[in-house]
Amino acid sequence: MNFVEIIGNIVTEPEKRVTSGGAKMTVLVIADNQKKGEKDEVLWWRVVVWEGELERVLPHLKKGSRVIVYGTMRKPRTYADSNGTYQASLELKAFVIRFLPGSRPEGDSLSVSRSPLEGEKEGEGSDFSGDIEYTGFSASSQPAGFSPGKGRGGLYGSEEVYSEDASPF
């Protein structure tokens, strides 16, 4: 299994889809801007988040959010764009999505704080602040042999799981 990390901007509003088998997913389109000498190059990523995964972070994902996504990459596919030029379709199944600083509106937070325990004053009882960043899936926190894709026909389901237009986005 491969693990990929991408940093980029969400360029369209997240799109909710339902497969022919009834499975629900959210699709994000992320632009990964890269410098090649004097020229800027953009890698376009299609990021799939299956229902039940990363539920706490999904409502906060918006067009323009700058994020880091960790996941597994599906084999790249080629397609002809509207001009007849062949392009590569890069797809990632997300396990973790983190926001980069300044990418969310003010007050839109994904941190969780615990209340003081009985008899404990605010800030006592822990060496930590109590704020916990939500990161979704963590491979190290799962039992040996765990595979996030099991039970869905592999990581992406069967090949006919969803159809695409001529453009992958």
Automatic annotation (TrEMBL):
DNA-binding among keywords: yes
Entry keyword annotation includes Transmembrane helix: no
Domain of life of the source: Bacteria
Keywords from the UniProt entry: DNA-binding
Region feature Disordered, mapped onto this chain: 106-169
Molecular function in Gene Ontology: single-stranded DNA binding
Protein name, per record: Single-strand binding protein
Organism: Candidatus Similichlamydia laticola
